[in-house]
Amino acid sequence: MLVNIAIDGPSGAGKSSLARAAASELGLIYVDTGAIYRTVGLASRRAGLPLGAHDEVVALLPELNIEMAYDAEGKQRMYLNGEDVSDAIREPEISMYASDVSAFPEVRAFLMQMQRDMAARGGVIMDGRDIGTVVLPDAPLKVFLTASERARAERRCLELRQKGSDCTVEEVLRDMRIRDENDSGRAVAPLKMADDAVLLDTSELDFEQSLAALKQLIKEKFGL
Ligand code: DC
Predict the structure, then answer these.
(1) Where are the domains of the chain?
(2) pLDDT of the chain along its 224 residues, tens only?
(3) Three-class SS of residue 69?
C-alpha cells in the first residue's frame, strides 16, 4: 500500500501548517497543491486579465511552464517560466485569482498530471480541495479538515498580521466566504468531502491537538 495521504478542506482550516508539520515529523513529502493554482492565478494577474477571463486564461496556458521543486530545507518552491514565484503567489490578492482560475476545467486538467506524478511513488501528504475526490481517489487515507468559519477567519487574520498586514477578522471572513463559495460551488472538482474521508473538525482544538489527531489517523492507517 502506497503511503499517500489526501487532505482537503476549506481555506484557513489549517491544512498546510498541519500537513507540513506531520510530513516533517514522519519523513513524508508535503505537497501544497494550492500553490500550483496560485501560480496560474499569478500569471493571469500579471497578464493584466480580470477575474473570470476564461478564454484568455486558457489561451495563456501553453505559455506557462510551471515547476515545483524542494529546496535544501525541504521547502516547496514554485517556478513560473524559470522565475521563483514562491513569495509572489502568497500576496493576499493572488488568493482570489487562484480561486477564480481554479474553476476553469482546462486549468484543472493542465495541472492534474503534475500532482499525480508527485504521488506516484508514494510518501506524500498532499493538500488541496479535490485531492481525495479527484486527484488521488485511491489514497488509503483521506482527511477532510475543517473548522467553523469564525475560527478559520481568526486564524487566517492572525497569520496575515504576523506578516505585517493590518486586516480585520471581518474583512478576512468576507473574502473567505467568497472564495469558499467559489471553490465549493464550481461545476468541476468542487470542494467536497470524499465518501471515504475522515472528518477532522479543529474548531475547538489548538494546533498541537490538531496535529496529534492527524498523526493518530496516520498511525492507525499506516503504522507510522
Ligand atoms: O490552498 P490555497 O488557499 O492556497 O488555494 C488557493 C486556491 O486554489 C483555492 O481557493 C482553490 C484552488 N485550489 C483548488 O481548486 N484545488 C486544489 N487542489 C487546491 C487549491
Answers:
(1) 4-38+92-219
(2) 999 999 999 999 999 999 999 999 999 999 999 999 999 999 999 999 999 999 999 999 999 999 999 999 899 999 999 999 999 999 989 999 999 999 999 999 999 999 999 999 999 999 999 999 999 999 999 999 999 999 999 999 998 899 888 999 999 999 999 999 999 999 999 999 999 999 999 999 999 999 999 999 999 999 99
(3) strand
Q: Give 4-38+92-219's CATH code, choosing from 3.40.50.700, 3.40.50.300, 3.40.50.2000, 3.40.50.2300.
A: 3.40.50.300
Cα(215) to centroid of ligand 1, in Å? 23
Nearest alpha carbon to residue 192 among 151, 137, 122: 137
How many CA atoms, within 13 angstroms, populate the side-chain half-sphere of residue 86? 11
Cα gap 41→35, rounded to integer Å: 10
pTM given for the model: 0.96
Beta strands in 12-138 (DSSP E): 29-32, 66-70, 76-80, 83-84, 124-128
CA distances from 26 to 3, 13, 91, 214, 216 (A): 11, 21, 30, 12, 12
Among 183, 188, 191, 193, the mutation site with the greatest number of ligand 1 atoms within 8 A of its Cβ is 183
CA of 160 to the centre of ligand 1 (A): 17
